[in-house]
Amino acid sequence: MKKILFTIAIIATATASSFSQSEKYTAAMKTNIAALDSAMIKNNMADLANNFERIALAEKNQWLPFYYAAYATVSSTYNMTDKSKVDAIADKAESFLKKAEELAGGENSEICVVKSMIASGHLMVDPQNRWMEYGQVSGANIEKAKKLDPTNPRPFYLDGQSKFYTPEAFGGGKTVAKPILEKAYSMFTTFKPASELHPSWGKNATQYFIGLCN
Q1: Rounded to two decimals, what is the model's pTM?
Q2: What is the CATH number of the domain that holds 131?
Q3: Residue percentage of the chain with pLDDT more than 90
Q4: How far, in Å, CA of 184 to CA of 159, rounded?
Q5: Which residues have CB under 8 Å from 96's CB, separation 6+?
């Protein structure tokens, strides 16, 4: 009887500890996810990337912290004026994303979205000479993300953003970008993340680019 009670006590303690860790993880994730929308404006995406990396290294078996570490890391390159640093940072983002993909059990729509962003980061270092290589990789991952989850607005947002920055002579421009961005925005209004920790970013940025197209 004492052995049974002792075993129950151990299980109860382990369960309580597990719940405590789970609550701590969820709270940390929610705090940093909530800061994503304003991070680009405040130019502190690199700080958020470090936060997500710490969560990822502490949890180890969760794919979302590695995903957000990758997303925040590559996003930190978008405001960089020193393009000589971008490739190394994009490579770091890719290493996080590979870990996220491994833990997630393979590619999914959200992972392909960040793959596209990483390729775009490399592209912007030298657009003229890198377009053929990284432009195709970025575009292919956008299309793959759409196919893996047709309800995900983020690949449509990236598609519209890409068209916005592409010269009209090459099939881009505001007129081409606007309907794609409007579709993405409409999708954001109905999109339901799988959980409160799953990706939901992009709506505000989509609205911003629609405004630029008017």
Answers
A1: 0.89
A2: 1.25.40
A3: 82
A4: 9
A5: 53, 56, 66, 67, 69, 70, 73
